[in-house]
Design a protein that fits this description.
The structure holds 2 protein chains of 2 kinds. Chain A is built from 19 helices and 21 strands. By secondary structure, chain A is α+β, with helices and mostly antiparallel strands. Chain A folds into 3 domains: 2-52; 93-233, Dipeptide-binding Protein, domain 1 (Alpha-Beta Complex); 322-556, Roll (Dipeptide-binding Protein, domain 3). Chain A is globular. In chain B, helix 6 (151-165) packs across helix 7. The radius of gyration of chain B is 25 Å and the shape is globular. The chains are: A alpha+beta, B mainly alpha. The interface between A and B is large, with 52 and 51 residues.
């Protein structure tokens, strides 16, 4: 065809015949048309063929997840362990769900059972409008009555729920109990309104009204005093989300089967999800390698490096959610233990000393040695993922052992007797630093820190305690120095970590007290729109950077190993199991 | 006479068991740690742990807690009434939890005991009959090797070889996923394939010690006059060994079996953890880490009773097997 075209064009040019030119143009156009049409066809076919495959939804299949511990109870009202929380995420419905916008760093709520919600003009009433097409796993429709009934259970003093703080802004009766009739109003089966004593942070209002709920028709005939016992013993509760509990063999496995009654935003793709309880980390790893398990979280960087050459397994990570820190007690732990007396700690009460301690530890080297690419420097309790509140103008205190020694000298710590250990007023700078057993990351960090402090003349003795004993000591503020960790919540609320009221601030283990911080915390919690507190959080970070109440070490990733036949996973800051309903098992790729 | 002896021993065991439980009650409360540690969590109310301590009665004076545990002070729901309490961590009656794991543990430890006895006795006999020969040396070195090998290491090596390397055996749990869909023979086969490695790990170390016992016991018996007499009578070597020597050489093993009895129900912690076997060992360890006092006491009771019954059984069996022993 091309030859014909060229010959015709030649003819046209040389003969300059009008007729020939017409023929040529017509042939050219025909040629172009045919070629164009052919190519369009081919491209369309290729595009359609290649694009349609990933978009195809493969229904069915079973995903196997290995977890270290069994659930304690399959009920949203009584759960407390994280292993139970994971199962409930798949099985019990909620009004709204969290979503994290990575571009703005904002956490927002998105519709789940509630299709929309609005506040009254005074901000004291939050009304949800529910979908009418949701059903429990036994086919009974889910209505606003179920939600009010569940909140009644949560607030019942006989039930001893551990989330009583959610009811702070609910109306109370003369006995101090939650007045559910005033606080929760069911307008009809698809409309429910929560009334608060005063307007407060709207994000918190949503959080406090987003507790999972239980089926009223199952629980209403049970005496509230017996509900705990019922909940603890039921192995196949009626559920209401994408999955229902098909089988629970204690200490072995929990099998979830798809609940065809739940289609928000759509039905789950997998038929089943099996949680296998495998306590030993090595065995979990081998089960992932052998293909008996599709998904495990909590891998160590060392373990992940083993998968570098394994094409069948991919690694996804949850970043900026957990950090480790060294706590320096601001109070005399002996005096506090004796009669809760607050006296300054001889070693660590001075801000210059704490700054020097942070400066003396080469945190970049520590991260490089153990976490590698799976850890980032931590400079405060606010996650860098929360871009709107994170103060990115602050620079972490750099490693500088010489300057650290100068600061210590300014604080009165010098080696007066020449034994290599700093001393002040006849007392040597020596202490015990404690952490829990069974955590290789912290054990490594502890040895690293001990050797770094030794370089500047500080004698730290490492002590490892069984986790239960260690946590008990933290709770009682028994340690002069310790290595601990925090999981950050998806809302910023630092009062429990840095608030001065030691009775309420459970996680302020070091007993840091600063009235300026308290007033800033008050200012932040007083905002109706939480994002308006951005400047306050940034200011708090500046003060913390100066005060160094603790030495923030590093953010470490939650590393998740996933078999490549499991598609559609979306590990993000919210959860390793986020949008689990999109998971698909592609068996033919094995 | 025998029944009176057994009743006497059982009567003596009651105060012994009670003393053991009382000692456990106080010792576990003296240990550092907190049963409400699980409630120290940013997602849980700060005062939840205190409220749980109050609910569980942990704020009462120690003697009041003991009185309640005994059931001699209100609410009169204690050991005297046959109530061993509700697990702090699982919130269920402790004996429900213990019973769930008992069958699994018996399966594992029973299998291990069979391996122990069959392998230990047979190889012990072979070693004794080949005394000071090459075979004896090989068996001695082999048994010492398995005896000194830590369980966790052997378990991991087996998993690496047979699960990861060869893919012959499953690495963990009692069953495969979707085992319900299998036919009965396939179901049994699936369970056996899951049992092989943990049973071997548990059984082989005990078998190594049984080999040593059996070898020395057999050598002792072979030297006896009645064996010489049997040979002098012209009995075949096979009859001498299996009819005369073996029966007598097995006597000391009765004591060993009796002492192994508690192990049958107390489980094997490390093996159960590595192979994710849902047995008593894991229940006990979890209870200790969680400071679940009622569950720890229930486990102590089970283990204590098994020690007493095991010893009693050994004495009775010994008396039955050896007419020279008379029980008073």
């Amino acid at each position: 065809m091309l030859i014909k075209l060229v010959s015709k064009m030649r003819y046209t040019f040389f003969s300059q015949s009008r007729q020939a030119a017409r023929v040529c143009i017509s042939a050219f156009l025909r040629f172009c048309g045919i070629v164009f049409f052919k190519w369009i066809l081919i491209i369309s076919f290729v595009v359609l063929f290649s694009c349609s495959r990933p978009a195809e939804i493969q229904l069915g299949g079973t995903a196997v997840i290995a977890v270290s511990a069994d659930a304690d109870v399959l009920d949203p009202i009584f759960w407390s362990s994280s292993s139970t929380g994971t199962i409930l995420q798949f099985t019990f419905p909620d009004l709204i769900e969290l979503n994290f916008d990575t571009s703005t760093g904002r956490t927002e709520y998105v519709p789940s059972l509630a299709k929309s919600w609005e506040w009254s003009n005074d901000g004291r009433t939050l009304t949800y409008h529910l979908r009418t097409d949701a059903h429990w796993s036994d086919g009974i429709p889910i209505t606003a009555q179920d939600i009010k009934f569940s909140y009644r259970l949560y607030a019942n003093p006989k039930i001893q729920n551990v989330r009583k703080s959610y009811f702070t802004y609910f109306f109370k009766n003369e006995l101090g109990e939650v007045d559910m009739n005033r606080s929760v109003n069911v307008e009809n089966d698809s409309t429910i309104a929560f009334n608060f004593v005063s307007a407060y942070d709207r994000f918190q209002q949503l959080t406090h009204t987003a507790l999972n709920f239980v089926p009223k028709h199952i629980y209403e005939s049970v005496d509230p005093a017996q509900i705990r016992s019922l909940a603890m013993n039921q192995e196949k509760p009626v559920t209401g989300k994408h999955y229902t509990i098909e089988k629970w063999i204690r200490k072995q496995e929990i099998t979830l089967a798809r609940n065809d009654h739940w289609k928000i935003p759509h039905q789950a793709y997998l038929d089943k999800i099996v949680f296998r309880i495998i306590p030993d980390a090595n065995t979990r790893l081998i089960e992932l390698k052998t293909g008996h398990v599709d998904f495990i979280e909590g891998l160590s960087p060392e373990e992940v490096r083993e998968f570098k050459n394994d094409s069948g397994i991919r690694i996804e990570k949850q970043s900026f959610r957990r950090f480790d820190y060294i706590g320096w007690s601001h109070i005399d732990v002996e005096a506090y233990k004796k009669n809760k007396a607050i006296k300054p700690n001889f070693l660590f009460a001075d801000r210059k000393v704490r700054q020097a301690l942070t400066m003396a530890i080469n945190r970049e080297e520590l991260i490089r040695s153990w976490l590698g690419e799976y850890g980032q420097m931590c400079n405060g309790p606010i996650s860098p993922a929360f871009k709107w509140a994170f103060n990115d103008t602050l620079r972490p205190i750099p490693y500088n052992a010489v300057r650290a020694k100068q600061l210590l000298a300014e604080a009165g710590w010098q080696d007066h007797d020449g034994d290599g250990i700093l001393d002040k007023d006849g007392r040597k700078f020596e202490f015990t630093i404690t952490t829990n057993t069974g955590n290789s990351r912290r054990a490594f960090a502890m040895q690293f820190i001990v050797s770094e402090l030794k370089k500047i003349g500080i004698e730290a003795r490492a002590q490892l305690l069984e986790s239960n004993v260690f946590n008990s000591g933290l709770r009682n503020r028994e340690y002069n120095a310790f290595i601990g960790g925090m999981n950050t919540a998806m809302t910023i609320d630092l009062r429990s970590q840095i608030g001065s009221n030691l009775e309420k601030s459970t996680f302020n283990v070091c007993a840091y007290q600063n009235p300026v911080i308290d007033s800033l915390l008050d200012a932040a919690s007083g905002k109706i729109d939480p994002f308006e507190a951005a400047q306050v959080w940034k200011e708090i970070q500046v003060i913390l950077n100066q005060d160094q109440p603790v030495t923030y070490l590093f953010w470490f990733d939650n590393l998740v190993g996933i078999n490549n036949r499991l598609k559609g996973t979306h590990v993000d800051i919210l959860s390793a199991y986020h949008e689990y309903y999109n998971w698909q098992k592609i068996e033919q790729q094995e | 006479m025998m029944i009176v002896y057994i009743l006497k021993r059982l009567a003596g065991a009651v105060p012994l068991t009670f003393g053991l439980l009382t000692l456990t009650f106080f010792l576990i409360r003296l240990a550092p740690g907190d049963p409400t540690a699980m409630y120290i969590d940013p997602n849980i109310d700060p005062d939840a742990a205190d409220r749980m301590r109050e609910n569980l009665g942990l704020n009462d004076p120690l003697m009041v807690q003991y009185g309640k545990w005994l059931g001699i002070i209100p609410p009169f729901e204690g050991v005297w009434q046959g109530e061993f309490g509700i697990s702090f961590s699982k919130h269920r009656p402790v004996f429900d939890i213990v019973l769930e794991s008992t069958g699994n543990t018996l399966l594992l430890t029973g299998g291990a005991l069979c391996v122990d006895l069959v392998v230990g006795v047979l190889i012990g006999i072979v070693a004794a009959l080949n005394r000071e020969k090459k075979m004896d040396h090989i068996i001695t070195v082999g048994s010492l090797f398995f005896y000194s090998m830590p369980h966790f290491w052997l378990a991991l090596m087996l998993i690496l070889i047979f699960s990861l390397g060869l893919g012959w055996l499953p690495a963990s749990q009692m069953h495969s996923v979707n085992v319900d869909q299998l036919s009965t023979p396939a179901y049994i086969g699936d369970m056996i394939s899951h049992m092989i490695m943990p049973v071997f790990v548990l059984g082989i170390a005990s078998a190594a010690s049984t080999v040593r016992y059996m070898r020395s016991s057999m050598l002792e018996v072979i030297k006896q006059d009645y064996i010489r007499t049997a040979r002098a009578k012209g009995l075949s070597e096979r009859k001498v060994i299996y009819r005369h020597a073996l029966r007598n050489a097995l006597l000391p093993l009765i004591t060993i079996i009796g002492l192994s009895f508690p192990f049958l129900l107390s489980g094997a912690v490390i093996t159960e953890v590595i192979f994710a076997w849902p047995g008593m060992g894991r229940v006990t360890v979890d209870a200790i880490f969680a400071r679940d006092y009622p569950l720890i006491i229930a486990n102590t009771l089970v283990a204590g009773v098994m020690v007493i019954v095991g010893n009693l059984l050994a004495d009775v069996l010994y008396a039955l097997a050896d007419p020279r022993i008379k029980l008073r």
